[in-house]
What does this fold into?
Amino acid sequence: MRAGGVTNAAVASNLMETVESSDLIAYGLIPEFVGRFPVLVSLSALTENQLMQVLTEPKNALGKQYKKMYQMNSVKLHFTETALRQIARKAITKNTGARGLRSLLESILMDSMYEIPDESTGKDMIEAVVVDEEAVEGEGRRGSGAKILRGKGALSRYLSETKPNDSPQVTCTPR
It folds into this structure.
């Protein structure tokens, strides 16, 4: 199950599909405990595209939840598709799956979440927060993370300056 010190989730998922009660007993679980399992089921590791769906598609998707939270402070939250893909890849490499997506987003958005309530009026008002590739790469380092855009029209200026081919935009409209 281990290859070069890193667990390969796909290999582990394939091996877990063939596990039987006798394997659990051989592993060291007592037969009385194993007998309490009416059915043994294995779960497959999620792919990058499936993690992207978790971030954007369901009614209570993480992207939508954070957008709604920022919207309560009159701030727009914007994700690029490549940033969402990188977040999904990080969750795969850390073997955290869908449960790890929230902590990754939290660490990327941490600084902006503390800064937004302080600056809600005036010309330096925060209009939008953008999560792009740089924000994901800098995740976990102090002072890096999501880009905070200040002033009226800052998001539209930012989007017009970035090349649409380089970073396609993803919409997660909160409900």
